[in-house]
Design a protein that fits this description.
The protein is α+β, with helices and mostly antiparallel strands. The protein is 42% helix and 18% strand.
């Protein structure tokens, strides 16, 4: 029988993202964030390509990203409410980490597997932050899908995109539990 890690399983069975708008200062220190990033990087990665990297967004960088988001929204003709929502994650942000997907050509690893690995890093980063006692939320938003915004905000290359922006700070209020999937309804067992 395998050895059960009850604490880890209990955490995963009860984990809950914290809405970014409910996070307040302080955020983790550089040393505390280093541990979280180290845990996040222990992610499935076919071919050991490391098809992702991290950009840490401290609070003093948030106003620049908020302003870039507003400018991009106007350029793209977004409604004012979409622009305001896009800005809000940066207007309210304490500390965030952008997970950058880096596509790398490989003869045996298809591009979609690199995308999956970048998504896995986002979830690992989110869970590591939560397990370390912080509130955390994985966001993206329309601006992160705009190539011009990505280039101006982070200087991304053509082979790079944003897999997610993980906000990490102190939780001021535990959100209520939300409905979860009915596992029986979404699970099929194949016959022999």
């Amino acid at each position: 029988m395998p050895e059960r890690n009850s604490a880890a399983l209990d955490f995963l069975l009860t984990r809950r993202s914290r809405p970014a708008k409910t996070l307040v200062a302080p955020g983790p220190s550089a040393e505390q964030l280093q541990e979280i990033l180290t845990a996040a990087a222990r992610t499935p990665d076919h071919g050991k390509l490391e098809p992702w990297r991290f950009i840490v967004i401290p609070q003093d960088a948030m106003p620049r990203l908020a302003a870039l988001t507003e400018t991009a929204g106007q350029r793209l003709g977004k409604p004012e409410e979409d622009i305001a929502k896009g800005r809000s994650q940066f207007d309210l942000g304490i500390l965030a980490v952008a997970v950058i997907e880096v596509q790398k050509a490989h003869p045996k690893v298809p591009p979609i597997e690199l995308t999956y690995s970048a998504g896995a890093v986002c979830l690992s980063l989110l869970n590591a932050a939560l397990a370390a006692g912080w509130g955390a939320n994985w966001l993206s938003g329309w601006a992160s899908h705009d190539p011009a915004w990505r280039k101006e905000a982070f200087g991304l290359a053509e082979n790079e995109s944003i897999a997610g922006i993980i906000h990490i700070a102190t939780e001021k209020a535990t959100p209520p539990e939300r409905p979860r999937p009915d596992i029986a309804a979404i699970t099929t067992w194949l016959d022999a």
